Structure formats: structure tokens, C-alpha cells
Amino acid sequence: MKYFSSFRTTVNVSRYLFRTLALLFWALGALLSLFYIFSVLHQRESDLRQDYDTSFELAQGYFRHSSDIMRQLKYIAENRLDNGHQEGHQSLNEAFSVNPGETQFYPVYPNADCSRVEPQFQQSAESLSYFLNYWKDNFSDAYDLNRVFYISPDSQCLTHFSLRNAPVGMPAVPKSLQRQIIKYHNTRANDRGDYLYWVVPDSRPDSGYYYILTPVFVGNRLAALLAVELGIRLEDFASSSNLPIGITLLSDHNSPVMALTEGERRSSSLRVFPAEAGYFGYIDSFKDLVMKKGLAPATLSIVYSLPLNVVIDKYQSLIFVVLLLNLFSGLLLFVLTWLFERKMFAPAEKNALQLEENEQFNRKIVASAPVGICILRISDGANLISNELAHNYLSLLTFEDRQRIIHIICGQQVNFVDVMTSNNNNLQISFVHSRYRNENVAICVLVDVSARVRMEESLQEMAAAAEQASQAKSMFLATVSHELRTPLYGIIGNLDLIKTKVLPEGVDRFVSAMSNSSALLLSIISDILDFSKIESEQLKIEPRDFSPREVVNHLAGNYLPLVVKKRLALYCFIDPAVPVSLKGDPVRLQQVLSNLLNNAIKFTQGGCIMLSVCCDSHYLKFCIRDTGVGIKPRELMRLFDPFVQLASGGERQFQGTGLGLAICEKLVSLMDGDINVESETGLGSLFTIRLPLYKARFQPTVLNTDLYGRVCWLAIRNAALETYLTAMLEDNGLQVRRHGGESINAQDTFICDYDYPPTGTPRATVRFITHHIGHAEESMVGDWHMSSAFAEELPLVLLKIYRSDLAQPSLLTLPRPVNTEENADIQILVVDDHPINRRLLADQLSWLGYQAITANDGVDALNMISRHQIDIVLSDVNMPNMDGYELTRRIRSQGLSLPVVGVTANALAEEKQRCLDAGMDSCLPKPVTLEILEPALANYCQRIRLERHESLNY
Question: Where are the domains of the chain?
């Protein structure tokens, strides 16, 4: 009976929870109603803002239209003041059939004498009078002009042209115009604006006159002042709305000039105005909803306003209906709750007497379960209830296992236990503690997990097999790398040596073709191996400090001849804010940028390629833009997939494996960056790479006193180049001016990107030539040629120009040719089992000036070292009898410290570390070209010569 009492308590608790739930539902409805009211008010606020914007567009259109009128009249007045027009003004005036009569002039100042007006000004005024009178109807109807004022340049006199009938008593010279003319002439020339705008109210507060005053220049000389008078009505600036929206026109001092707040709009009058130039919101303690905007190009502002209570009054009935609905919903929920409790909870109490029947029913469910279920008493482990399957499982357990299970259940340390039955089946027993018949029991579930155990063992075997397959793949990569690179080394190296010889006519073409094909084959093999290493997670990023500027300049110098050969233009823009150094892998970065630049050149038939570097938040961003064929939208989705080549018309137009962009994406991802592409068919593509600024070191721009304040005139047609040069020169303290035909002083510099002769005699002329290869050079005195790929060198060139005694910068020098005679004192031992590669490496060393002797394997090499004075050892790592690793260990064991450099065709990343662990000084990958071999040996030669010098001094 205790159980039945507990059940009744649960029913009572449920009843209270249900009542609470009904109350929560009503509160939720009330909150939704409140949210709806606020949403309606917010929507009304949005509609009102749209009305404001519509009205503002009317006002903005009026002022822009007025400015267009002024510009047209100014253009007409300039033509009338032009010498050529003055000579023929009489014939032009005769062409118009309308005679405006004699032009009258009115004094601006009280004592001005208007009887003597300059003939040129008088003739231009008469010509303008003929023109305006002829087009009088057009201007008055289309432009809503009242009068046009034409003022003498000395501001003594003016004449006006009435395009409409002026009201009675309207003065010939309005006082506001007189004040503005005096103000204009009292202002310094540098502080004068091109246009002056003001409004003078009429007798009605919502209408008046709008004036615009502007100077007219002819040949950089003030020839006249031109002003117009237009009628303005604030009623025209109000859209059709059923709300009494008020309109106020403000001056540039934020003071009201005109206002439309009379009649029904009186409630919209304002006492204060927002100080911001553009504002939308509530003011005066949320009393009024206003919008303020400037009326460009004028310096005036317009304010639209409406009281908040007018908006709320529109929704009084809605608020009342919502409150009524909330009261009705509360009453409905109360009735439904009462009915539900009567129909549901009352009968539930009667069901407590049926629990005994339910217990029997539950026993049947346990008996029919597909797993073993039993209830064990915790005190002694007795089996209280169990189905047949659980009984069979328990009977298969040994006595020791049953004791261990009971001990675990009593200890409550874990909630499951695994045991092995007598028939070698794996059994898992899960249990939970509970109460049954006022006793502490454990409900146990017994499951045969033999199949799962066997599956786990199978998965472990599969994992081991996968690991063996991965190791086999690594061995395959190493073997393929060695077997392919070794013969390629013989081909490329010998071709490299052949190029150094004088060849018969026509043979050089065949050699170049073979060299290009070998380089293409090496590139394809390298791409495949790199992709395989990335997929097998064997390619590692080797971060170190490097300069991104040096990487970009190196790439630009390498690809510039190819770009020029294809008649393209290469622009390289490095932002001054780019760090001088950061942490990363420059080799992999150069590989990615080289691939993208190579694709841009390959797919671009005309136009230019732009490489820009800048900082974007916490990233360094590289952008490569081209004007090539572009990429179709459906192909962008699979652009970075491996072995995918984009083609036109279903045919492959370009060579390659289709792995370049896939490798780029994976390398950028390994460097914690991202790569993105944007393209338009027929317009080109834009590839963007972002790399994090790890340990970036920035260096502020130091202003050079020799360049500070210097003037540079730019005549650049390329907008991107002009923007980059302007920002860079201004950062270095120079004054940048755009050349428009002005005469250039002798101390200024003229910079252009096309054959444009400067006016005057500048100190020097710097021309950016797209087909110029190399760094900046002075073709003749004062005439410099620069490549657009090295635009950042412009400050150094200017420094050279303004400091004639300065030594020539390093960027303007040519590379030093190799002096083969200075290496004759170094003897190098070449160890390789392949005769072709051995002979090739010896020939390369001989061409570089070194003394070279050869050995077939490690045993032969040790014999050579014992009989000859060897300075450096170049050894292959994979050889019969004794490989390069064992050879290095033998040399080190003899106490010899001579440099040992490994030469390997293995492309795996761990090969270099294996060479270093064996005692080698470094490792060179095959094929070894002269460009790789020369700098690699130069450091060791310098160390050897230094040791010889120290030993002689000792």
C-alpha cells in the first residue's frame, strides 16, 4: 500500500505542474501579444522612414537639379567670356531673333559707378542676355528659374536676367546676394569654394528663394561671378501621406531657415534639432521621430518630423483588442484546465488499484525480451526475477565469475562487467541499482557480445594491414623517386652543361627543346610525388624566419622574362605595411605563388597580371589577378580537385597533370592559411591566399631628409599603379601631384608609364615600361627606365636622383659572373655507382672550377680519401657494397671533419633528416643543376679556406 500512496502523490504533483503549465501558456500569449504590438509600431516606424526617404528624394532631386542648372549656365558664361566667342558674338546674337534690349547694370556697393563697365564683360553680358532671352521659356519651364545674376569680376556692378515676372517690389540686387558677394571677395583665395548656397524665406514660412553663387574663370583668371535665383516651396518636398509630417530646412549652422509646420502640421514643429549631419530616431525625450539629412551639393539640411503620439493614436483600437484577447485566452485556459483535471487526473487515482495487474504484465515483458534480464538482490546476490535467456547465461558462469559479479554489484564501482562463459562465449552484464519490493536490487541485462569481440579483432587486423600498406606506399614513393630522378639527373645535368658550350647553328634549338621537355617531365614527377607525400602525411612544413618581400621580388624577377616574351605586363604591388619578416615556410610559399603565376601567364593571351601583397587583419594576403580566359562557374567547384584539368570545348589545351592547384590548396592548408578564387569567363581570375602573421616583425617607414618635401608629377594611365605609387611616395614624405600639362620645375621629378614628354625641364624622368626586364637603369642622363614588376624600388631611384654622390644601390647592379679560377684550390671527391651521373657531376664541378676525382662506391671512396687530399665529399646515398650513410659514419669515425654532402633522388621528407643523422653536413636532391650546386658548395669552400688560413697563422 506504500507504493499506491506514492502513486497518488505523483498524481497530485502532476496536477500542480499542469496548472503551472497552463499559467505559462497564458504568460507566453501575453508576451507574444506585447511583441506583436511592438512589431506593429516598429513596422509603422519603418513605413514612416520610407515616407521620409521618399520626401527627401524629392528635396534632393530639386537641389541636384538646381546644381545641374548652375553648371550649365556656368559653362555658357565661360563660352561667352572666351576670346573666340567674343570675336563672333555679334554674329551669334544676330542669329537669335529675339532682341532683349539694352543690358542694364546695377551697383553692388552703394557708391559704385556702373556707367563704365569693362567692354569684355559688357559684351559677354549682352551675349548671355541674347542667349537667355532666346531660351527664356525653356529655362523658366524646365528649370523653374526666376532670375540669373551676372556680376562683374571687381564686384562693383551686376546685371540680372528675369526669366519670370518678378513680384512687385523685388529689388534688383537682393541684400542676401550683396552680402554673399562681399563675403566671397573678403575671403582668401585658398578658402573660397566653388559654389555658395543659401535660402532666403518669403513672407510665407514655407516658401522662399534659393540662391547659388559661383565664380567663372577664363584662363585661371576670375572673369565674373554668376548667381541664380530659384523659387523654393517646402510643400514640393512632401510626399503624399495621410500623416501631418513637418518639414524644416536648416542652414549649415543647424538653424531653421524655412518650416512647413502650420495648420494640421503644427503638432510636428520642433524645438531642437539633431546636431549630426545624418540622423534618424527620436529626440526631445522620445517625443518626436525625426530624420535629418544633408542636401548635397548644397550645405543645407532638411528635417522631417512627426510626434510619436500621432503614431500611437492610430493603434489605440488594436491595443484594446489585444488586451481583450488576452483576457479571453486566460479565461479559456482556466476552463480547459478544470475540464482536463476532471477528466484525466481523477481517473488516474483509481488506476492505482490496478498496479498488481500491471506488475504481472511487466513480468511477461521481461520474459519475452530478446536479451537476458534478471533482478538480483544486492545483499546476497539472489536471483529474484529472470527470463529464460538470463537463466541460461547465468548457468554457464563459473562459481568464481558469479562471486566476482556479486562483488562488483555490491561495490557499485562500475555499471558493467565482461566475463567468459564455459563454452567460450563473451558475455557482457550491465546493471543499474533500483528498489523492488522495498529492497535494494540490481536490474541486470546480459548480452552475448562474442560477434562484436570478433569484429573488433578483425578491425585491429585491418588497421595493422593498413599500416603495412602505408609503409609499403612510403617505400614505393622512395623507390619511384630514386628510379625516376636518377636518369633525369643525367639528362638535365648534361643538357645544362651543353648550354655552356658554343653550339652549331640550329643545335641550340634542339637542346632548348630537350631541356624544356626534361624540365616539364621533372615538374610532372615532382607534382605527383608532392601530392602523394601530402596524401600520406609525409610532407612537412619547415617554418623559419623569412622576408615576404624577398620571396615576391624573386618570383617577379624569375617570371618577368616569360611575361615580356608573351607581350604581357606584370605589376607587382607590395604594401609598405607588409612585415619585414615572419615565421613560415618560404620554399612552400614560393612553390604556391610560382604555380599560380605560371597558370596566370599560361592562360592569359593579352593584358596584364597583377601580384599584390598586403596585410588583412591578422593575415598576410597575396592576390594574383590576370586578364585571361577566366573560369566557368560550374568548373569553380572542382577547380582544386586532383587530376582535374579545365579545358575549352572538351579538348586539353595545356600540358600538366592537373595537380598544381590541388597541391597549392593542401600546402596553404598546411601553413594554416586559406586560398580563394574569383573568376569571370572572358575577364580573368583572381586568386587570393591568406597566411597568418606568425611572429611578424614590422618596421616603420623612415623619412629620408633628401626626399622629404620633394615634388613628383605623375602621368600614369594605369589606375592601380597610380594609386600604389601615390600612397608609397606620400608615405616617404614626397608631394605627389597629377600632371595636367603644367610646367615642371627643375627640382621636380616626372613619372609616367607611357611615352609622354613632360613640359618644362624636370630634374629627372622615370618611365615605367612593361617590357623592361631587370631593375631600374638610367638609359641616358636624367632618363630612367623601370619595370612595373619592381615598382617598390621607386624611392631608391628617387634617392639616387636627388643624391648624386650616393653609391648605386644594390638593386641596380648586375649579378657577378662566376669566376672559375678561384675554385681551383678545392678538390672534391664524387662518389656514385651510376657511371653517367658520376661523370656528369664531375663535369659540373670542373665547369665551376673545382678539381674533381671520382669513386665507384663507399669502399672505393675510403681508399681515395686515404691516398688524396680531399676537401669535400659529394656522395650518393644508395650504393652497393657501402652506401652513403655507412661511408659518412666511417669518415666521422676516423676523426675527419671534412664536409660531406649527400646527393639523393629520394623525394621523401625524412630522407634529409636521415642524412643529417648519419653525420652528413647537408643533402641535395636530384637532379642537381649548376644553379643548385654553386651556392651549396660556396659556403663550405669559404669555411675550408678560413681553416687553412688559421692553420698557417698558427
Answer: 369-448, 540-692, 711-812, 820-953
- The set of long-range contacts for 602-605, using a CB threshold of 8 Å and a minimum separation of 24, is 602/654, 603/628, 603/629, 603/654, 603/685, 604/566, 604/568, 604/628, 604/629, 604/684, 605/629
Closest CA to 671 of 584, 578, 546: 584
At the topology level, CATH places domain 711-812 in Rossmann fold (3.40.50)
Nearest to 247 by CA among 266, 228, 231: 266
H helix count then E strand count, the chain: 25, 34
* Rounded Cα–Cα distance for residues 162 and 196 (Å): 21
User: What is the spatial distance between Cα 14 and Cα 914, in angstroms, rounded to a whole number?
Assistant: 74
Give residues with Cβ within 8 angstroms of 355, minimum separation 6: 3, 4, 7
Whose CA is closest to 841, among 494, 481, 484, 521? 494
Q: For residue range 721-771, what is the model confidence (pLDDT) as tens digits?
A: 999 999 989 888 889 999 888 888 888 899 998 887 888 888 899 999 888
- The C-alpha torsion from 254 through 259 and 261 to 267, rounded to 10°, is 0
Q: What is the average per-residue pLDDT within 65-74?
A: 86
Q: Per mean pLDDT, which range of 253-257, 419-423, 569-573, 587-591 is the poorest? A: 419-423
Q: Cell numbers of 316, please?
A: 489605440
d(CA 250, CA 295): 10
Chain centroid to CA 954: 61
pTM, 2 dp: 0.43
CATH topology of domain 540-692: Heat Shock Protein 90 (3.30.565)
Handedness of CA 427, 432, 433, 434 (dihedral sign): negative
Topology match between the domains 711-812 and 820-953:
yes
Give tens-digit pLDDT for 850-878: 999 999 888 999 999 988 889 999 998 88
The larger pLDDT score, comparing residue 285 to residue 810, is at 285
What angle, 0 to 180 degrees and rounded to 10, lies between the N-to-C axes of helices 930-953 and 835-847?
Answer: 60
Mean pLDDT of the chain: 79
Q: C-alpha cell of 353?
A: 488499484
Helix orientation angle between 2-81 and 119-134, rounded to the nearest 10 degrees: 120
With cell 505523483, the residue in question is 10
d(CA 625, CA 688): 9
Coil, strand or helix: which one is 454?
helix
919: left (phi over 0), alpha (psi -120 to 50) or beta: left
Q: Which helix (H) or strand (E) holds 417?
A: strand 416-420
Classify each residue of 323-358 as buried b or exposed e, where b means 16 or more C-beta atoms within 10 Å of its C-beta. Answer: eeebeeebeebeeebeeeeeeeeeeeeeebeeeeee
What grid cell was written down for 788?
A: 612595373
Provide the 3-class DSSP secondary structure of residue 226. Answer: strand
Homologous superfamily of 369-448: PAS domain (3.30.450.20)
Q: Where do the DSSP E strands lie in 221-277?
A: 222-233, 246-250, 256-260
Closest residue by Cα to residue 539 from 909, 904, 907: 909
Q: What are phi and psi of 513, to 5 degrees?
A: -65, -45
Q: Could you identify the residue written with the cell 616574351? A: 565
DSSP H/E element including 335? helix 316-340
| pLDDT tens track for 815-833 | 344 445 578 889 999 998 8
Instruction: Give pLDDT tens digits for 778-810.
Output: 888 888 998 888 888 888 888 888 875 443 443
What's the rounded Cα separation, in Å, for the pair 232 and 528? 76
Sign of CA dihedral 45, 49, 55, 56: positive
* CATH number assigned to the domain with residue range 820-953, chosen from the 4 options 3.30.365.10, 3.40.50.300, 3.40.50.2300, 1.10.10.10: 3.40.50.2300
Terminal C-alpha separation, the chain = 109
Report how far residue 798's alpha carbon sits from residue 766's, in angstroms, rounded to the nearest whole number: 9
